[in-house]
Amino acid sequence: MSSAVVSTSAAQGRPFVFDIEDVAEPCPQPSGEELFPEARPPRRVVPGAFKDARLAGVTPASRLAVRPTPEMVSSGIAAVDALTGGLPRGCLTEICGPASSGRTTLLLAALAAATGRGEFCVVVDASDALDPQSVVAAGVELDRLLWVRCGENLPEKRLEQLLRAADLLLESGGFGLIALDLGDLPPQTVRRIPLTTWFRFRRAVEHTPTVLLAVEQQSIAGSCSSLLIKLGPIKLGSRISEQSTDIQFPAPTHAHLLTELEITAELVRSRLDRKPVRSAEITFASKTAWAG
């Protein structure tokens, strides 16, 4: 072991001995590049030199396979099929519109088309508003239809029953069409459904032959829906305004029975194609059950 003798000015004549190995190295002084990093010359980066090993199993977006287009089935209305291409299996489709906008007409037409194909269907009725006579008149086969009625008084309780029934039905499987009728619930109540619930419904129906329909007053599922159809009645006043104001329309002398209502349908969203959706509208007629 080597040693050294050192005398300090504070203790003249009183040397002390210590090992050289125990002496700590002096603290390195920072260089000019460390004090002024902006003056540091740019480093040349070699492509792939710092590639993270964790990204080795990640597939680039350019190599991802194109998601196959889902199978489309008829909605029961030729004009709607021409607009949307039909209803997609394994996806969530939203049908929204105010009262008397044709929501029930499109729902019953889709049920009639599905039962006509030999499929079993479910309607989860949040407001217990489905009319069996209108169902029969639309051509729906009742022996292939399951009607889930939510009989609670409070809208929040009915909404809770609907969501619980939807989870059970999606988990069981075996249905060609599942319709969640939220059209008669207040919009502020329906907006309480979290987006995670719609995402869970979409994942549950994915890769299955089931068509999931959500009938509402306003769109609430957001990006979880693959197809969004907005319905609305044609306003008579808009047609009258196009004509001359000098035309006199005679007032009705007796009560009239409504037998038909013209409906407009607009394709608002479609995630089935990579191309952006162009706003398009079609018109179809909604007839009453007694009109034949």
Task: Summarize the structure in short.
The chain has 292 residues and is an alpha/beta fold. The protein has 8 helices and 12 strands. The chain has an 8-stranded mixed β-sheet, with helices on both faces. It has a two-stranded antiparallel sheet with strand order 1-2. A two-stranded antiparallel ribbon has the order 3-4.
**Overall average residue pLDDT:** 79
Give the topology string: H per helix, E per strand.
EEHEHEEHEHEHEHHEEHEE
**What percentage of residues falls in helices of 4 or more residues?**
10-25%
Largest sheet: 8 strands, mixed
Unreliable stretches (pLDDT < 50, length at least 5) are: 2-11, 236-245
By CATH, the superfamily of the domain at 72-235 and 259-291 comes out as P-loop containing nucleotide triphosphate hydrolases
Structural class comes to: alpha/beta
Shape summary: globular
CATH architecture of the domain at 72-235 and 259-291: 3-Layer(aba) Sandwich
Discrete helix count:
8
Report the count of strand segments.
12
Strand content: 15-25%
- For the terminal residues, how far apart are their CA atoms? 114 Å
CATH class of the domain at 72-235 and 259-291: Alpha Beta
Q: Roughly how many Å is the radius of gyration?
A: 35 Å
Strand order, main sheet: write it out.
Answer: 7-6-8-9-5-10-11-12
